[in-house]
Amino acid sequence: MSGVTFWPPEASAAAARVDVIVIALLLISTAIVLLVGGLILGFSIRYRRGSNAQRGQLPEFIQKEVEVGWTAGTLFLALFLFGWASITVLTAEKPQADALEIHIEARQWMWKARHPDGAREINTLHLPAGEPVRLLMQSQDVIHSFFVPAFREKQDVLPGRITQLSFTPTEEGEFSLFCAEYCGTLHSRMGGKVVVMKPEDYARWRAAQPQEDDQSKEGEALFRTVGCSGCHAPASPVHAPSLAGLYGRLVNLADGRTVRADEAYLRDSILQPRRDIAAGYAPIMPTFAGILREDELQKILAYLMSLRREGGS
């Protein structure tokens, strides 16, 4: 959206819930300021120099009941607000299996986006309205933060680690994109725009972009090149876990724990294979730390995650 507005538009499914919390905080803060300010003003007038107001020791109920009540009320209000905000965040949109998955790469001082079919763009992100989106993001240098005020969504983007952001854009238009974490001398210029389009317009836009092999296809080639398929292929003589449908599944470990095979688990399994050993398997997998570059690791992770959707290996 162009121009300066007092309140950004609500352009995502989560925006209204966040706005309710913000408005409640503003109202509560205003009420407290008015209450405290009124008491200060009233006391200043009543107990001004030369007034006949009674002074001396405060009544017993003020020393105990009022003080305890004010402290307890403040505590319960803080706990209520904390719980409300936490529930809103924890119950926010969960990643959906059919969500549009886009890879975001942050670097000083630009945003790079890569769509499923390989279409790329810089400092601009095209999205379809009304469809769930899942961003997989990573920084190539320092910490950045992906922030779209109209979506009320913000997520740190870290070097050496994939972070994700799931949301559903609901309004068509152009919305400002910012980096909300100081990242260097040109931090203020690290911005862009998110263009939300009708689904059919988005499909036409994507079809018009130069096509490349997507991340998962490149990852499949790397999977074979570096030798992963030698152990994890169905016909392999090596007793290694099957990777078909692994992503998102619960995995029983040799030490009795159960973990979910998310991106962090897959990454650790490649770089630190002896950290979480699957039950029933010997710890024979070598580490690929120092062998795979970060971009290559991302491609293999994209391939492993795609096996869940494709249901194959």
UniProtKB/TrEMBL annotation:
Name listed for the protein in its UniProt record: cytochrome-c oxidase
Keyword annotations from UniProtKB, A to Z: Copper, Electron transport, Heme, Iron, Membrane, Metal-binding, Oxidoreductase, Respiratory chain, Translocase, Transmembrane, Transmembrane helix, Transport
Record domain Cytochrome c: where: 214-308
SUPFAM superfamilies linked to this entry: Cupredoxins (SSF49503), Cytochrome c (SSF46626), Cytochrome c oxidase subunit II-like, transmembrane region (SSF81464)
Any single Pfam family the record assigns to this protein: Cytochrom_C
Transmembrane residue ranges: 20-45, 66-87
E.C. code: 7.1.1.9
Entry's Gene Ontology molecular function annotations: copper ion binding; cytochrome-c oxidase activity; heme binding; oxidoreductase activity
Gene that this sequence comes from: coxB
Cytochrome oxidase subunit II copper A binding domain span: 97-208
A biological-process GO annotation: ATP synthesis coupled electron transport
Compartments reported by the entry: Membrane
GO cellular component, one term: membrane
Function comment: Subunits I and II form the functional core of the enzyme complex. Electrons originating in cytochrome c are transferred via heme a and Cu(A) to the binuclear center formed by heme a3 and Cu(B).
Substrates-to-products reaction catalysed: 4 Fe(II)-[cytochrome c] + O2 + 8 H(+)(in) = 4 Fe(III)-[cytochrome c] + 2 H2O + 4 H(+)(out)
Source domain of life: Bacteria
Membrane association type: Multi-pass membrane protein
Top-level EC class as recorded in UniProt: translocase
Similarity comment: family membership: Belongs to the cytochrome c oxidase subunit 2 family.
